[in-house]
Structure formats: C-alpha cells, structure tokens
DNA sequence: ATCGTAGGCCAACACGCATTGGCCAACAAG
DNA sequence: CTTGTTGGCCAATGCGTGTTGGCCTACGAT
C-alpha cells in the first residue's frame, strides 16, 4: 500500500508516467528520434501531448528517461574464460529479443547525437570493463571491446533494424554457434600481426 | 563539344545538378534523412531550394538519385578462395573511407524505410551472389552473406556513425587483420552444429 | 464541508519544413 | 532583331511539429 522507501513519494500519476515511457520506447524503437512525435506517443499512451511535456520537460528529456537502460552483463569474474564468447552472445540476443529499448537506442543513436553519446557511454561503462578483465593485455581492451561491439551491434542492425531476410530468419542457436567463436576470438586470442 | 551519346542531351544545367547531388550526399551522410533539409542542401550547393524540386521532383527522388551506388565488389571467380575474406574486408574499408555515399545510405537506412529497402537490395544483388559462389553449400549462402554483412556493417556502424573512440582509432591494417579471418570463416567454414 | 493542490485536457502559438507558382534574365534558333 | 526555351530566384502556402498557458475536475487533508 505505501511506498517502498522514503525516496519515492509515490505520486498518484505514476501509472500515467509509466504508460508514457512505454509508449515512448515503442515509438522510438519503431520510428527513430525525429519521426517519433510527441503527439503519437501521447496518443498511444492515451493521454494529452501536454502531459508529456509536464512530466519530462521536453522531447530530449523524455528520450533520456525512456532509454535509461542497464545491459545487466554477467560479471567477468563469474565467467569460465573459455565460455565468455558464448555467454556474451546468448545474453545479448536474449536482452534484445525481450527488450525493445535496445532497438530504440540503436535507431536513435544513428540519427541523434545525444543518442550516439549514450551508446558510447554504455559501451565504455558496461562492455569495456568486461573486456578489461577477460583479454590478455589490458592495454588492448578498448580495441577488443570495439571489435566485439562491432559484431554484436552489426547483428542487431541487420536483424532488427534493416531486417535483412536471412538475418531475420536465422535461429538464435544458429546465431550463437556462428558468433560465439568470433567474440571469443576477439576477446582472448593473441593479437594478430598486421 | 557535343554529347557522348544520343542518350544524354548534355543540358546546360548539368553542373548544378551535380552540385546538388554532392551536397545531398554530404548532408544525408552527416544528418540522416529527416534532419537533412532541402534548404540546407540547396544552401550548400549555392542554389535555390526550388531548383532541387524542379530537378528531382521531391525529397525522396533526390535521395534515390543521390545514393545510386555500386559497391564494385570483386568478381568471385577472380578471387583465390583462401583470400576472399581479406579481399572483401580491405575492399569494403577502402570504399567506405573514400565514399561518403555509404555512410549516407547506412544513416538513412536506419530511419527511412525506403533507405532500408535499398540496403536490402544492395545486399541481395551484390553480396549474396558472391557468397553463393564462395561458400560450400549454395543453400547456406543467404545465411553466410547475412553473417558477413553483420560484421562489415557493424564495423561501419561503430566506426563511422556511432564513432566509438577505439573503433575510430583502429588502423585499417589492424581492422583487416582481425576481421579477415572472421569473414573468411563465415564464408567458407563448415556449418557449426547448433 | 472546505480548500489547496495535483492530474488532465483544450486551444493556441511560433517555427521550420517540403512544396508550388509566378517572375526575370540569359541563351539559342529563326 | 525577334521569339521560344531554359536556368534561376523570390515569395507564399499549407502543414506538422514542439511547446506553452489557461481552465476544469477530482482527490486528500484539514
């Protein structure tokens, strides 16, 4: 009945706020930043456009609130070193299938600079530390993390955004079978001579 | 003095038409479809916005004319089978560095459905046939081509669009050293069991 | 019962956009 | 020299956008 902690006053409008966020994620994921209009988001949330402004200030604020996301990457210490690639790929795939926020973030990151900045932040805050613990030479961690992200984001791009038919029809297990060795290689293989 | 063939009447306005196309490519590459305005393109081409409409009909027509591109992929027959991965990666990297059209196409493909459709067309017209000749079982060609494009487009995404710092700073030779084996593997390795 | 406040909607604003039609100058053919 | 045509600009239109302020209703504390 009451709020869980004193930090959350439990406003009466929380349901509306949540409905706005969910609609925003869906529209941003489907249309990207510019084409997702406040009006369309409000209509989908079944409220007035002005409410969005009242609760989130402006469109940028709404976007920031809608894509505050945690990848929940597994802890590097808990991973068997040889299974890191497979674990990462399956985790990513799972997150992406169940959570449209990631597609929204990718779509927006490509057109909006604030979105790109947020993706860079997620990269360096969440993927990079993991690479730092797994790869042989910590100095190579940024490059290796960049390679891993290029493969994982490239899959998301072709499968969920551009919708290349063969990429869409691949089974998750098949994707894992192909990508896990690649990611594992990028993380732990010795640096190939140029 | 005269036109090369009867098909091209060699209008007096060809220089302007070309200037518009170049400006359009640059703006589409930098801003994406929605944020690249006719006004900005016209200003950069140093002509009036109405000229763009006169010559290309509307914004979609301009985009279609601006990104008519040929990847100029090497012929599959001329490639030593073991070198296909390396050849593809270096070719892609080279095309992307010198030609902003590709970045424009990627940026637009993510937000605009016509752009996505064009990328799917390039995929199936240019990359898929190459995979069909290189991979062991032609029936697996679509899946293998999709995997290759996921890695190559993922690199372009992180390096040229999202601008992850480590991806930007990687040297082309280093990229090739890492990605060539991956692409080669996707094209020619036996299908890994799920 | 009263009253302050929060949740909600409506109507409007200013702006930037793609797009249009009319006008003017320069060229080229007669 | 005249005349039709082409290349170009200017000004305006209509629309959709993010954003704002005022008004009404219903709740919650006193």
UniProtKB/TrEMBL annotation, chains A, B:
Residues 37-56 bind DNA. Residues 14-74 form the HTH tetR-type domain. Signal peptide: none annotated. Gene3D superfamilies: Homeodomain-like, Tetracycline Repressor, domain 2. This is TetR family transcriptional regulator. It comes from Streptomyces variabilis. It comes from the Bacteria. Coiled coil: none annotated. Keywords: DNA-binding, Transcription, Transcription regulation.
């Amino acid at each position: 009945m009451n709020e869980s902690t004193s930090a959350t006053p439990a406003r009466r409008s929380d349901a509306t706020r949540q409905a706005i966020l969910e609609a925003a994620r869906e529209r941003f994921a489907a249309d990207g930043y510019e084409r997702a209009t406040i009006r369309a988001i409000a209509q989908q949330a079944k409220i007035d456009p002005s409410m969005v402004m009242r609760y989130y200030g402006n469109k940028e604020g709404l976007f920031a609130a809608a894509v505050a996301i945690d990848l929940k990457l597994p802890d590097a210490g808990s991973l068997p070193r040889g299974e890191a690639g497979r674990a990462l790929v399956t985790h990513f795939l799972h997150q992406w299938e169940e959570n449209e926020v990631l597609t929204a973030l990718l779509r927006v990151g490509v057109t909006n600079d604030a979105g790109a900045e947020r993706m860079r932040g997620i990269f360096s805050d969440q993927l990079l530390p993991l690479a730092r613990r797994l790869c042989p030479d910590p100095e190579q961690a940024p490059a290796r993390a960049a390679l891993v992200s290029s493969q994982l984001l490239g899959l998301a791009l072709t499968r969920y955004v551009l919708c290349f038919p063969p990429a869409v029809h691949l089974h998750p297990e098949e994707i894992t079978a192909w990508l896990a060795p690649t990611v594992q290689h990028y993380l732990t293989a010795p640096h190939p001579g140029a």
